[in-house]
């Protein structure tokens, strides 16, 4: 695994995304991080990233995760990302690779439920526990065959296992805000100079008020100019 593909796709003079250092020093860390970034690019999707061997293994999940064990969500494996990417929330300029607004939708730690993660990835069946703010409990990523149109080996399914955290609640609609800033996509776009109207199409139509209220400008309060 290397960050070559990640870097080839991006111009770091133009995009605020992290370039990533040299392969993370092989320091034994007590916990492996995971992040899910909601990304309003050409298509809205959720980037699911698991730290492994000094990089973030990454899958793009068009519909986002489901807490319902009977629901399988397509997850297309994409290029590894640098560990620093887990903290990235902001705007990738339009016209650049992945141009659009990025939100840290969930973040925390993960633990494999298998001894040998590399082998599980090779086999295409990785079971793990998530300790996030929104997602918890046991999950699995299973590689599929012939599903996802010709991109052999890149197509996986993300599925919740049955446990106390399984639910039929629609987590992506019910919890649409950033776990690091409490912002919606439109607010991130507004704050960071992005395309607010495009970002807003990724937010629920009637967002629930968050616990920590973020002031939003009402349309009626906007000064004429
Ligand atoms: Mn993405």
Description:
By secondary structure, this protein is mostly beta strands. The protein has one domain (4-200). It has 5 helices and 9 strands. The chain has helices at 4-8, 117-123, 171-174, 185-191, 196-200; strands at residues 32-40, 44-52, 55-61, 72-82, 90-92, 100-112, 125-132, 136-143, 155-160. It has an 8-stranded antiparallel barrel with strand order 1-2-3-4-9-8-7-6. A hairpin with a 3-residue loop joins β7 and β8 (136-143). The protein is globular, with a radius of gyration of 18 Å. The termini are far apart. Bound molecules: manganese (II) ion. Manganese (II) ion (MN) is lined by residues 39, 41, 45, 47, 60, 98. Manganese (II) ion binds next to β2.
Keywords:
single chain; 5 helices; 9 strands; disordered C terminus; 8-stranded antiparallel barrel; 225 residues; mainly beta; binds manganese (II) ion
Compact description:
With 225 residues, this protein is mostly beta strands. The protein has one domain. The chain has helices at residues 4-8, 117-123, 171-174, 185-191, 196-200; strands spanning 32-40, 44-52, 55-61, 72-82, 90-92, 100-112, 125-132, 136-143, 155-160.
Q: Care to count the β-strands? A: 9
Largest sheet: 8 strands, antiparallel, barrel
| Alpha-beta classification | mainly beta
pLDDT averaged over residues: 89
Instruction: Specify Rg, calculated over alpha carbons.
Output: 18 Å
Outline: globular
Q: What is the spatial order of strands in the main beta sheet? A: 1-2-3-4-9-8-7-6
Count of individual domains = 1
The helix/strand series, from N terminus to C terminus, equals HEEEEEEHEEEHHH
Distance between the termini: 51 Å
Helix content: 10-25%
């Amino acid at each position: 695994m290397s960050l070559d593909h990640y870097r080839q796709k991006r111009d770091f003079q133009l995009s605020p995304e992290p370039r990533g250092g040299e392969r993370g020093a092989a320091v034994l860390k007590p916990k492996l991080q995971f992040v899910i970034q909601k990304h309003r690019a050409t298509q809205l999707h959720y980037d699911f990233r698991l730290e492994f061997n000094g990089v973030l293994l990454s899958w793009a999940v068009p519909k986002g995760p489901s807490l319902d064990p009977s629901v399988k969500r397509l997850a297309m494996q994409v290029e590894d990302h640098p560990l620093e990417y887990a903290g990235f929330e902001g705007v990738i300029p339009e016209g650049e690779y992945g141009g659009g607004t990025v939100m840290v939708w969930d973040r925390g730690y993960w633990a494999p439920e298998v001894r040998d993660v590399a082998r599980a990835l090779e086999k295409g069946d990785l079971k793990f526990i998530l300790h996030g703010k929104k997602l918890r409990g046991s999950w699995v990523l299973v590689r599929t065959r012939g599903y996802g149109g010709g991109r052999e080996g890149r197509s996986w399914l993300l599925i919740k296992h049955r446990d106390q955290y399984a639910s039929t609640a629609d987590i992506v609609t019910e919890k649409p805000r950033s776990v690091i800033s409490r912002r919606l996509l439109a607010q991130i776009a507004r704050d960071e100079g992005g395309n607010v109207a495009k970002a807003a199409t990724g937010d629920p139509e009637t967002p629930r008020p968050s616990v920590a209220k973020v002031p939003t400008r009402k349309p009626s309060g906007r000064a004429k100019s």
